[in-house]
Amino acid sequence: MKILILSGIPFAIIAIGAHFSKAGAKDFVDLDDLLEMDELLDDDGTEVREGSAAIADPLKVLNQAIFEFNDAAYKNIFQPFTRQYVRVIPKEARKGIGNFFNNLEYPARLTGSLLQFRFGRASRETGNFFINTTAGMAGFMNAAQEFEALQPPKEDIGQAFGAWGFKHGFYFVLPFLGPTSLRDFVGRIGGNYVEPISEPSTQVDSSTDRLILTAVETVNDIPEIIDIYNSITGPALDPYTAVRDGYAQLRAVQVAE
Amino acid sequence: MNSFSLRSLFAILLLTVALLPNLRSNDLVNTKDALESTLNRLLDVLHANHSAAPYSVKKDRIIGILDQQFSFDVIIQRSLGRNWSKLNDSQKNQVYTLITDLILQSYTQELQDGPRPELSFYKPKVITSSKIEIESIVLLAESKINISYRLANIKDRGWQVYDILVEGISMVSNYRKQFDEHFLKKSASDLIDLLKTKLQGA
User: Fold this and answer.
1) Contact B23, B60 (CB under 8 A)
2) pLDDT of residue A11 exceeding 50
3) pLDDT band at A3 (very low <50, low <70, confident <90, very high)
């Protein structure tokens, strides 16, 4: 009998150890707790406050005017254009063009990773760029998507500023381009600075060619931008506030990643 | 206690300790499977016979499917937050119905356009002892969207969705900002008028 009990002890220790090590690693908690409805309806729950990333909007009157202008442009120019573009250009071709320009944004993503001292992500970005540029035929094919280890979250310089502790400063809306903040706008300028199409690091000699490339990139991005815009504004009561808060939440998630 | 009962007791204890995490993890997997099944049944209705019937025609079936796992009353009350108390009972009922219609009409339209989207779900993540998050990817014709569902284990209801995050943007927080902005200058009856106008134009 004693032998039986004693022989069981190591298994019990292993089982208990496994149970608590899992709990420790995953912060496993007792899931049998049931919430009373009142607890969930707590009107100023911290979860909602945390979700609502704050962004100051001192230029609200001007921003709203530009937002209305953009809204009219999206609905009356970009949306009809998108329908035709999607109809005429095959999906695979649009995807290839998107991949090509996405690959060219590697220097900005790399800079964003390095500024946050995320060397692992920087090396994954580099691996992704190398494979897409070679096996992916100059980036038109996303050959690196086959390798899960080479899919780092997208970084940019605005995110790096956020990770350093810089707040947004204030919110503003750019004509045609949409929402940004002082912090992210400065980051965007920094991104353009290291990218190979825009000045001053351009690898394209002719200014006409640069203009054409930028136009192709912008036009190819429009369908996706319109989709996202419609998803946010469609069910919104107040589209301006919905987009501003959506932007602030999205950037907060990206910085936190 | 004889040796047999001691051995049995020990074996039961050992088994319980070893299986406890699995039982909990099975509960989570079942919740995830139930959510996946609910959303696939929603897509079945939206893409039945390739019909593009409007939301109003399919409304009852859509709400019937989602009601089992989505607590819209919780989603809407949390979205209104402190503004909920500014509504009388009749206004609360109207706002509840109108916002549910607005949300479902907009989102089901997106899921209905184009070919049937593909859904894939990840393993649930524990937020607190009574809240979990289930991440998913929706593959639409033109884009891939990350959608996370936050579920709470509500007394007498079980695991219920109380917030939806699209690309990390919380629907409840986003609506809360809009309602806060609205009630700074406008009233509950203005809100009802606005919702009616939105629904007519949607």
Assistant:
1) no
2) no
3) very low
Q: What is the band of B197 on the pLDDT scale with cuts at 50, 70, 90?
A: very high
Segment A93-137, tens digit of pLDDT:
888 888 888 888 888 888 888 888 888 888 888 888 888 888 887
Tokens read off for A112: 């964003």
Amino acid letter for position B146: N
pLDDT in the model for residue A229: 87
Q: Express each pLDDT in A211-257 by its tens digit.
A: 888 888 888 888 878 888 888 898 899 999 999 999 999 999 999 87
Facing A237 at nearest CB: one of B7, B167, B194: B194
Residues of chain B with Cβ-Cβ distance to A179 below 8 Å are none
Residue A25, domain member (yes or no):
no
Domains held by chain A: number: 1
Give the nearest chain A residue to B27 (CA atoms).
A31
CATH classification of the domain holding B186: 3.10.450.710
Amino acid at B133: E
Characterize A191-200 residue by residue with b for buried, 16 or more Cβ atoms within 10 angstroms of its Cβ, and e for exposed.
bbebbebbee
- The residues that bridge with B121 in the sheet, in sequence order, are B136
Report phi then psi at B138, rounded to 5.
-110, 120
Instruction: Convert the pLDDT of each residue in B7-45 to its tens digit.
Output: 777 777 776 656 555 556 777 888 999 999 999 999 998
A22 in any annotated domain: no
Q: Is the Cβ pair B178, A231 closer than 8 Å?
A: no
Nearest to B155 among A12, A35, A52 (CB): A35
Q: How far is B103 from chain A (nearest CA, A)?
A: 6
Go through B118-144 and write b for each residue having 16 or more CB atoms within 10 A of its CB, e for each that does not.
Answer: ebebeebebeeebbbebbbebebebee
Residues of B in contact with A253 (CB under 8 A): 167-169
Domain holding B21, by residue range, is: 3-201
**Side-chain-facing half-sphere of A257: CA atoms under 13 Å:** 17
A182-206 per-position pLDDT tens digit? 999 999 898 888 877 777 777 777 8
Range of the domain at A227: 57-256
HSE toward the beta carbon, residue B187, CA cutoff 13 A: 4
Q: Which residues on chain A are in Cβ contact (under 8 Å) with B16?
A: none
Q: Is A6 within a domain?
A: no
Contact check, Cβ <8 Å, B178/A241? yes
Q: Count of domains in chain B?
A: 1
Chain B residues touching A46 at Cβ < 8 A:
none
The token pair at A53 is: 């990333």
Q: Do B153 and A35 touch (CB under 8 A)?
A: yes
pLDDT in tens, A74-93: 999 988 888 888 888 888 88
